[in-house]
Amino acid sequence: MMTSRSRKDDASASANDDTPPSVRHALLEATLALVYTGGFDGISLRSVSGEIGKSTTTIFQNFGGRQGLLDAALDHALAGEHLRHEAMLADIGALPTDAESMARLVAFYVGAADQSATARFCLEALLRIDRLTDAGSRLQQWMAMRESFWSRLSSALLPAQVRLLAGYTVMEQAFCIILRDELDYDQLLHMTALATCRGGIAADPKADIPVLTWARTKAFPAAGEKIDERSPMDELLTRVAQQIVSDGISDINLRRIATQAGVPPSLIIYHYGDFAAFMSAAIWRAMTHELPSYLDIASSADRDAREGWLSGLETAVDPAATDGAKGFYLRYARILGQVCLLARQRQELVPLVRQLRAIEGMGIHSASLKVWPPQFRLDPAAASAFSIWIKAHALFRIVDSVPDQPVFDMVAILEALTGSPTPKI
Question: What pTM did the predictor assign?
Answer without folding.
Answer: 0.86
